[in-house]
Amino acid sequence: MKTWIDLIIKRLDTPTDAASVVLLRFVFGLLMFWEMTRYYYNGWIREFFVKPQFHFQYEWFQWLRPLPEVAMYLLFASLALLSLMIALGLFYRISTLLFFLGYSYFFLVERAIYNNHYYLICLLSFMLILAPLHRSWSLDVLRGAVAHTDKLPALWLWIFRLHMGIVYFYGGIAKFDHDWLNGLATRKLMGEGNRGTFLEPLMQYEWVPYFYAWSGMLFDLLIPFLMLWKPTRNVAFLSAIFFHINNNFVFSIGVFPILALMLTLIYYDAGFPRRIVPNKIKKWVSGQYRKRLLERNQPISTTQSQTRPFILAFLGIYILIQLLLPFRHLTYPGWTTWHEEGHDFAWRMMLRQKTSRMTFNVTHPVTGEQRYAEPKDYLNFVQIKLMGNPTLLIQFAHHLDRLVKRNAGFDPIITAKYEVSINGREYRELVDPNVDLSEIPKFTPNYLWVKPFRER
After folding, report:
1. What residues contact residue 363 under an 8 Å CB cut-off, 6+ apart?
2. Average pLDDT taken over every residue of the chain
3. In this predicted model, what pLDDT tens digit does every residue of 230-242 receive, in sequence order?
4. CB–CB of 421/354 below 8 Å?
5. pTM score, two decimals?
6. Please, which residues bridge with residue 421 across strands?
C-alpha cells in the first residue's frame, strides 16, 4: 500500500510544463472580469442584492447579509480588478484569496441565484489560492516577488482536469433519471430553449428529445476519458465545442461554455499552448520576457520544488469530499428531482423544467380571517422562478410569518396551495394545503414534508 502511495506522490510531483495551467490562470481571470462587468451591465447587483426585501439563505450561512448598496457595487468593482490581477499574476496570492472570499460571499448570500457553474467557479478560485500559477509568465515574476519556473508539479494540472472531469462525469450519472432517459426533460428544456429560433421546427420531431437525452448523457460520461486518450482527443474536443456552443445558444449560460472549453482543453499535453502560438510571436514574447528577468538578475528555474505533504493530505480529503458529496441524495427517500433534497452541489444539471402556480394564505388563528399574500410583492423574478424548490418555499413562508408577527402583532397560520408542473406533466400539489408551513422548521429536509411524487 505504501509503495502505491509513494508512486502516486512521485507521479504528482513530476515536473510538468506550466504552459497549460498558466493559460488557464489567464483565461479564468479574463472570464471573471467579463462576468463581473455583466452584473453592472445587466443591473443584477441592484436587482439581486439591493432591491429585495428578503434573501433566501443556506443553513450554515444564515449569518451572511447583503452589504449596503454602495458597498455591493464596490465589491463587484473590486472583484473585476482582482480578476485582472489574477490573469496577469500580480500579487497573485492575495488576489486569489480575496477573489475567492468575495465571489463566495455573494454566491452564498442569495440562494436563489444558485447555479452549478457558479459553484464550480468557487471551487476553482479556491484551488487557485493553493496552486502556484504565478511562478511562470506573471507580473509577480517580473517584479521579483517569485522566481520564474518553466515547470510545475503535475499535481496542479491534474487537479484542474479533475474538477472538469467531475462536472462532466457526475452530470452524466445524474442523467440516469427516468425523465431524462424517456426524453421528457429534454423535450421541455429544448422546446423552451429553442422557441423562436431556427431550431424550433426541429423540436417537433419525436426522435429529437431522445437524441438530445442519450447523446448528452453519453457525452458527459465519456468526454473526460476520450480527452485523456490521444487517438480520440481531437474528435472529442470538437464534440465539446459543438456541445457547449449549442448549450450557450439555447440556454444563454454566461461564461460557463468558454470556461468549460478551457478546462477541457487542458486535457491536452501540458505544453500545448507553446505549439499553437506562431513561432515568431513566441520567440519575440519569450525573448522580451526573459530579457527583463536577466536585467533584474532574477533566476530562471526549469523545475519547481516538491509539493508539501500537508497540501497533498489536504487535497486528498478535499477530493474525497468532492467525489462523495454528489451521492448524498441516494440516502434520501423519494424522487430527488421533485423534492430537491440533495439536488444542489451535486452536478445535477438540466434535469427538470418546473412551472409553478401558487397561492399563499395568511390566516388569523382566532378569528379565521384570511388574506392572500402575493409573492411578487416580496420577491424578484429570479426568486419567484426558483420557488419550485421546496427549500425556498418554506423560507418564504417563514418570512411571511415574521412580517405578520412584527406588523400585525399575532402569530398567523401560513398555508399554501402550491402546484408544480415538472417536465411538462400536469400540475400536482407540492405541499399539503392544510399544513401551517411556518410550524415546519426552516431547514427540515424536504422529503419529510413535501408530498411524495406519484405517477398517475
Report:
1. 369, 370, 371, 412, 413, 414, 415
2. 90
3. 999 999 999 999 9
4. yes
5. 0.93
6. 355
